[in-house]
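call fold(seq) -> tokens
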Amino acid sequence: MLRFGTTSRRGLFAVTLICAAASARSQAEWPSLRVMGQIGGPTIAVASDSNIVLAASGYRVVVYDVSDPDALREIGSSIPLGDFVRGIALGDGRATIAAGSSGMHVIDLTNPRNPTIVGTWDSPGSAESVAVAGTTAYLADGPFGLRVLDVSNASNPQPIGSAFDDSFAFDVAISGTTAVIAAGGGGVRLADVTDPRAPIELAGIDTPGYARGVAIADKLAVIADQWEGARIIDISRRIEVGSLATGSWAFDVAVAGSIAFVATGSAGLVTIDLADPAAPRLIGTLPVPNGDSVAVAASGNRAFVAAGRAGLQVVDVTDHASPRLVQALAALGDGLGVAAASPYVAPIVRRSPATPSISRPDRKASSRSMCRIRSRRSS
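ret:
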């Protein structure tokens, strides 16, 4: 039996294999290892439409059938994308993926049981989130701000513009011809993308917290502002018109009609009534057991919560005041890879990104392999 990250409290025999450049044995004595696949890993991104849900599972994207909204079924998954999946955009039979240091990927979902990567762009920063409008993708590229790409040829995404190169872009949403960017300590940035090849930087809007997520509600932008909860921005007037404390840090937000669904870390899911933007009302909450709510998507009467190591949570939001958990699709926690070199098969434990931190937001999350196996048996 293999156990990972545990400590023996009894007389157990432990065998540890550590893959490191400095080894007592010469490299010639070690077999050549290659990554064959990956299972498990934290769920930190999710997207949905009326037919399917896509959720991160470590380095992969998993496809779920939602024909029975109370019993999602996994029907397919991508190959590992090289880094943790941090953002997903759905549309026109494709998924566009933001995957940290491995950049942006376009996945063909014509056959959702076999999602296939058809195009990749190695961004200069750390791909955090992505929005797609028509044949244009807007990538929140971490320390390199907003990157704009032509994806009319999905197999060959082409960068065509950029904005706010000096800001750290965590999330982006499109409202008409305006890109709204959640820029951490830089607050909210707005760019006129009437001509995507020449975005015009508009006035920024300071927020009292740390802008991590954004969603559009008609002519409003709802900002997940970490410790300062939800902020409501009038996009055309470029001012904040309302705010609401969420009880815990707000990391992400989705909007359906006049209701905002906010992922609030350890406090779970919060529902907010936006009918009066100047006085938003908190109307419902739902804790997430054993996890942190870090991302959320909404479709119909369901919200889908990415809860890190607690996996994907399916929530019935028919009654906005009383959201109800109907299914939990648990992840395996820390991402695992599989390396093979006959006759060896070795899981690889990788450090997974925890609940987002503000300690060093300008640094890329490490994705280096620990490459360690511990096998224990009773003596």
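The chain has no helices and 33 strands.
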